[in-house]
Design brief:
262 residues, mainly alpha, two-stranded antiparallel ribbon, 11 helices, elongated
């Protein structure tokens, strides 16, 4: 039949995917404490461990009771008391496991995580459609790698991790902005307080020096001489004095005789 010539049926594809998924889960469960710690602290773990489903290695649709069992098993594996030879790294891994459980245990935060997973699935499907359109335009087969459920799940997981990382970066940027705004507000408050203190200090000094200013003014008033003549009047008086010296009451005053020089 045509369907059999194109590959396995949808039911067979799902059975194959489910079988492989179980094998991966079984392999992960058999990881030793050391390997679990290595997994949780691999490069980029700061962003990888933002995805609680990835940390606990559980499917997002897994019931909460099953998630709790997985959490307990994993927390025992990486507990610092069970890994005394690598206690510091074990503590970091244990904190990641504990944080992931706290997120999934809370209904609100679990729903928020599910929204991220759903968005990743939606975007992955959109990306798949774009790939298929491109291949059809190029005259190629529209079958792509993500048609395989295993590869589809892997693509969703990668995109989910990216979305969690983007949300964390936005959160940090928002916190930094809030911190900067708070710092600017505090600096403005300090400037206003400093100005207020200067004004209060000036008013205090002005008030304390009031009596001194009054005493200085009174002393100045007591020692002030009579009013000085106006500049025009003084010139007139000098001119009149010079005129008087030049003329006598009876007429022209003769010049003083000069001694004879030989």
């Amino acid at each position: 039949m045509a369907s059999s010539s194109q590959g396995p049926s949808g039911g067979q594809a799902f059975d194959s995917f489910y079988k492989e998924l179980k094998q991966v889960e079984k392999r992960d469960e058999s990881l030793t404490p050391k390997l679990q710690i290595e997994r949780l602290l691999r490069p980029g773990y700061t962003y990888r461990n933002l995805n609680p489903f990835e940390v606990l290695q559980v499917d997002p649709d897994l019931p909460l009771e099953d998630v709790k069992k997985k959490f307990r098993r994993m927390s025992i594996l990486v507990h610092p008391d069970k890994n005394t030879d690598d206690a510091e790294r074990a503590q970091t891994a244990f904190d990641a496991v504990k944080r992931a459980w706290n997120v999934l245990e809370n209904k609100a935060t679990r729903n928020a995580c599910m929204e991220v997973v759903d968005e990743a699935k939606g975007r992955t499907k959109m990306n798949m459609e774009e790939k298929k359109k491109k291949q059809r335009r190029e005259g190629k087969s529209s079958v792509i790698e993500e048609d395989d459920p295993v590869h589809f799940k892997k693509a969703v997981n990668i995109l989910t991790m990216k979305l969690f990382a983007d949300l964390e970066r936005k959160r940090q940027a928002n916190e930094n902005k809030i911190s900067e705004d708070a710092l600017k507000k505090r600096e403005k408050e300090l400037d206003e307080e400093a100005k207020k203190e200067k004004i209060e200090e000036f008013e205090k000094n002005w008030e304390e020096s009031r009596q001194g200013r009054v005493d200085s003014w009174m002393s100045f008033k007591k020692g002030v001489p009579g009013p000085a003549p106006a500049p025009g009047k003084e010139k007139k008086e000098k001119k009149e004095k010079k005129f008087k010296n030049k003329y006598s009451p009876i007429g022209f005053r003769p010049p003083k005789p000069k001694p004879e020089q030989r």
